[in-house]
Amino acid sequence: MRDIAERIVIAGFGGQGILLAGKLLAQTGMREGFEVTWLPSYGPEMRGGTANCQVVISPNEIGAPVIEIPDVIIVFNRPSLEKFERVIKPDGLVLYDNSLIDTKPGRDDIRAYPVPATALADSLGSLKAANMVMIGAYAVASKTLTLKGVLNGIKEVISARHEKMLDVNIAAIKKGAEVAEGFK
Fold this sequence. Notes:
This protein is of the alpha/beta class. The chain contains 6 helices and 6 strands. A hairpin with a 7-residue loop joins strand 2 and strand 3.
């Protein structure tokens, strides 16, 4: 178990499952014994507008859910990369969907890894699973939460009306984890 808090920002367009991804991290963190917060934020237009959420996972009480300097950013579009890359802490972890982002992060004091989340989700039959590809990559790259915990957690956060997507989401998490195994 980590002895310090990890502050995570997940960002992209509305409709990319940003809030669900954050909810999964918070749920998994709670199940693994951490204190957690989940703070969603989205524009007035849910689909196509901006969306992000902030998740804090900590072994100790969390004073405030707002993150000024994230340890991790998980981004699904270029505007989010440009916005949050500027504020991530030095040596922070950046996971970006290089299926949709045509540039690399510009900072050389961060650990930035491309994850072809949308392409991998498409190969699994559902573009909507790109968020789960990124969460699988996060679990392996960060090592704050266990992959097993994330795989169990998805069963809790998927609503009954989306249960038919459970197998695709589990496969997507595993694909993301495979990608992260190759990070150096």
